[in-house]
Structures are given as C-alpha cells and as structure tokens.
UniProtKB/TrEMBL annotation:
InterPro entries: Na-dicarboxylate_symporter, Na:dicarbo_symporter_sf. GO terms for cellular component: plasma membrane. It comes from Acinetobacter johnsonii SH046. It is a multi-pass membrane protein. Keywords: Cell membrane, Membrane, Transmembrane, Transmembrane helix, Transport. It is found in: Cell membrane. One of its GO terms (biological process) is dicarboxylic acid transport. This is Putative proton/sodium-glutamate symport protein GltT. It comes from the Bacteria.
C-alpha cells in the first residue's frame, strides 16, 4: 500500500516537473507583456546586486578567517578552489562534499573535526542560501509593486534565518523555504515562477558561497581546537616534570 502510494506521488511529481518549464515560460511571457523590457532590466540588476552581495560576504568571511588563521586563510582559499568551482558548476553542495573534505584534509584539518563540523555546517551554516532567499523574497515583492516597511523586511530576514536551518544541500531546495515565507507574509506565491527563470544563475553563486563559508568555519574550529590540544599537552608535560620533584620532597 505504501509502495503504491509512493509510486503515485512520484508520478505526480514527474508530471509537475514536466510542465514546470511551460509554466515558467508562461509566467515570464505574461510579466514581460505587462511590464515590457523593464523586467529584463530588473532581472539583470537583481543578478548583479546578488553577486555583489556575495562578494561582500566572501570578503567578510575571509576577514573573519584571517583573525584566526592569519595568512593561512589565503592558502586555504587556494586549496578549496577546486570544490568551490565544482559547487559553482553543479549548483549542489552535496556533489562538492567529498572534494571539500579532501581539500580540508590537505590543509591539515583533522578528519575527526571535518567529519563532524562540515556536515553540521551544510545543515546550519548555508550563508549563500540565506542571502539568496532574502534577495528573492524582496525581489518578488518589488515585482508585484508591494512596498515592505523596514520592520517587515527585518522580520522576513529573521524568519529566513530560522527557516533556512536544516535546508537540504541540493539544487532548488531554497525554493521550498521561499514559498513558505511568501505564504507567511501574504505575498504572491506565483512570484516563485519569476525566480525559477533565473534561479540556475543564482544557485551557482550561493552554492559556491556555502562551500567557502563551511570550509573557513571548519578550518577555524580546527585551529582553535588545535591550540587547546597544545595547551593541554603543555600542561601535561609540566605536571610530569613537577611530579618527580614532589616525589623527592615526599621521600625526604
């Protein structure tokens, strides 16, 4: 019974995916008919602003990493270049996961830290996806000429910060969160079709950002844990050196 129900659900999903391109084309054609070439310009501005925002985020992430890693942050960026490009090309964090682990191992991060922090980061530290969803919701609101107050925008940002946690690291996973956020704030859910038209271009950038953010976070945690381990080892050496002296004092 359950197997048959799963087959029906998968068949329905296949039908939806088959007609999705037609629906996206119809939505874009309707929007262009109403707004004219202005929509194409809006798309270009939206994509440009999003990638500028990603560059700013990359700068902040590297600056944060420099505080703990010093000049090693630049070596880390060179090492994770391959998984970052793979994530950009495939628009999937999961596909770049093995390469990211190899890169971090090459950088010197212990596997016990990588195997724990990196999967956790892919569930709760998707900086690029978070930024994309905020941009997408605001773009849809502007496309429908809906003015959002500063308090509403702040509330949307706070909501996305919570709902984006645990999002799957696969392509188009952010669309589900965007849809629920639009419904929560009574914004037109049909606006998702406008986003789908350019989602692939945006997905590549946000996925690469997720890889960069998680790589830096893992390396920083490894560095801080390494310092703690060194302090513990030094304390152990001092105790071992002091113990014989205490024993001699007791014997005397």
């Amino acid at each position: 019974m359950i197997d048959e129900l799963c087959k029906v659900m998968f068949r329905i999903t296949d039908y939806v995916m088959a007609f999705a391109p037609i629906a996206v084309f119809a939505a874009i054609a309707s929007a262009i008919t109403i707004q004219g070439p202005k929509l194409i310009i809006d798309y270009s501005i939206f994509i440009g602003q999003f990638y500028v925002g990603l560059l700013v985020l990359w700068t902040l992430l590297i600056a944060f990493g420099y505080i703990f890693l010093k000049k090693d942050i630049f070596r880390l960026m060179r090492i994770v270049r391959e998984p970052t490009m793979l994530a950009f090309a495939t628009a999937s964090s999961e596909s770049a996961y093995p390469k990211t682990m190899e890169a971090l191992d090459k950088f010197g991060v212990p596997k016990r830290i990588t195997s724990f922090v990196l999967p956790l980061g892919y569930s709760f530290n998707l900086d690029g996806s978070m930024m994309y969803m905020a941009f997408a919701v605001l773009f849809i609101a502007q496309a429908y000429n809906i003015d959002l107050s500063f308090s509403q925008q702040a509330l949307i940002l706070f909501t996305l910060m919570i709902t984006s946690k645990g999002i799957a690291g696969v392509s188009r996973a952010s669309i589900v969160v965007i849809a629920s956020t639009l419904a929560m704030f009574q914004l037109p859910e049909a606006g998702i079709l406008l986003i789908l038209a350019i989602d692939q271009f945006l997905d590549m950038g946000r996925t690469a950002t997720n890889v960069i953010g998680n790589s830096i976070a893992t390396a920083v945690i490894a560095r801080t844990e390494g310092n703690k381990d060194e302090s513990t080892e030094q304390e152990g050496i001092m105790v071992n050196n002091i113990s014989p002296a205490n024993q001699l004092a007791d014997n005397s």
